[in-house]
């Protein structure tokens, strides 16, 4: 009987042998764990692999794991789908792609290197070369002791705060519209059974009597 039970999909190996007798020494436990890990690695080496090209032209080998044998329950309930924003509804109505994958890499012809168009490295690269600003003779800083760099940072902060408030407003608006639509559907379904005093129980009988007359 095999004393190890493998579940390669979860990268899990379990020693199912019975434990009896005195307490096992630390060296024995370490040797057993090393043997189990060696078995798991040998099993992973026999699985199919694929090569994926990294962000900086470095290839990475990925192992395709099989479906797990042991089913693990969820700790929390599945997340509810988020309501669409006003822009997402407009994009779906007009047939506009919501997510357009853009490349973050651009080739610099002067330095002959690849650079990021946005992100931390792109910001550091811009700040490295952005050390001088030309201002007009009538330039006045927004506050005492300020400079053009400080004014730009303050203007950017104001733009980000304004954009965040706009996004929160659109989110609340879409949630309110979704709740209103659900209430309208509920009221329309209820109104179908409140057309007569009998809640629609004798509507068919009345229609037949009217047809005979």
TrEMBL record:
User: Where in this protein does the record put region Disordered?
Assistant: 184-213
Annotated compartments: Nucleus
Q: Tell me, which GO biological process terms does this entry list?
A: ribosome biogenesis
* Key words of the record: Nucleus, Ribosome biogenesis
- One Pfam family named in its UniProt record: RRS1
Q: Which GO terms describe its cellular component?
A: nucleus
**Predominant location category:** nucleus
Name the InterPro entries for this protein.
Ribosom_reg
Q: Does the keyword Transport apply?
A: no
Family note: Belongs to the RRS1 family.
Q: What does this protein do?
A: Involved in ribosomal large subunit assembly.
Q: Quote the protein name from its UniProt record.
A: Ribosome biogenesis regulatory protein
Q: Which organism is it from?
A: Trypanosoma cruzi
């Amino acid at each position: 009987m095999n004393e190890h039970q493998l579940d390669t999909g979860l990268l899990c190996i379990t020693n199912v042998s019975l434990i009896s007798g005195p307490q096992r020494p630390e060296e024995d436990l370490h040797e057993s764990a090393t043997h189990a890990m060696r078995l798991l690695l040998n099993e992973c080496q026999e699985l199919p692999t694929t090569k994926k090209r990294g962000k900086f032209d470095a290839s990475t080998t990925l192992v395709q794991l099989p479906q797990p044998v042991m089913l693990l329950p969820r700790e929390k309930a599945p997340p509810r789908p988020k309501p669409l924003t006003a822009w997402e509804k407009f994009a779906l109505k007009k047939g506009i792609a919501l997510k357009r994958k853009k490349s973050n890499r651009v080739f610099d012809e002067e330095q002959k290197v690849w650079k990021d168009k946005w992100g931390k490295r792109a910001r550091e690269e811009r700040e490295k070369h952005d050390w001088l600003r030309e201002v007009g003779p009538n330039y006045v800083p927004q506050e005492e002791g300020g400079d053009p760099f400080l004014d730009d940072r303050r203007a950017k902060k104001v733009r980000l705060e304004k954009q965040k408030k706009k996004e929160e407003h659109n989110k609340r608006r879409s949630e309110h519209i979704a709740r209103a639509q659900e209430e309208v559907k509920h009221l329309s379904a209820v109104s179908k059974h409140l057309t007569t005093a009998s809640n629609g129980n004798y509507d068919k009988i009345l229609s037949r009597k009217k047809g005979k007359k």
